[in-house]
Amino acid sequence: MAHQAGGPWPAPRPVPGTSEAQAYLEDYGALLEAVPFPSFVVDHRWDVVLANGAFRTLFGGVGPHPTALPGDNFLRFVLFHPEAATVLGEHESSWCLPMLAHFAAALERYGHDHALQAVRRDIAQDPIMEAAYRHGLPHWIRAVGAGAVEHDGAVRPLLHPDPRWGATDCRIVVETPRTLEEMGCTRLTLVLREARRAPSRERRARRAASHLRVVPPAG
Q: Which of 77, 174, 187, 194 has the fewest CB atoms within 10 Å, counting from its CB?
């Protein structure tokens, strides 16, 4: 079921398991709500199982989309939503390419998963993204190093709708307790940073150094 980006999620998305597992998710959702930063739980397909109010606030201005709402599937949102770059700063180099790399790893591990196969078909229908996935992605990983692919610890730019934050950075913290891991889920928190962003000239230079040419710049 699709959710509007800014609307409430009254219950966690069902996951395979017992009623006790579902009860755990409900309690874990209460824990997420106490976190002041955007925090969410995804499964191996990047379906969003849980998300807190700060997550909904961050993406609350994003328009509707039939398959790529941030509260439904974060992978699809990053790759396919036309408004992703309005929230995810330096979208292609800082968000899209790392997510493509994670998608490639997931597809290798869960090759017969119908939802991942559907994402692969959608990538193939976009000539620029297909070229990035098949040819540009390996080159980018060699250029920036495998560490740039990892989410945990990465500092990436955000464009927060709250003017108190505005154009800022977040550090992604991946913190998954054992019970969530056994469910095949991962928790990510976007820790907003109050440090001043680098001057625009420096950001442009950094983006030019790491940006994949086959992925067009946003906007």
A: 194
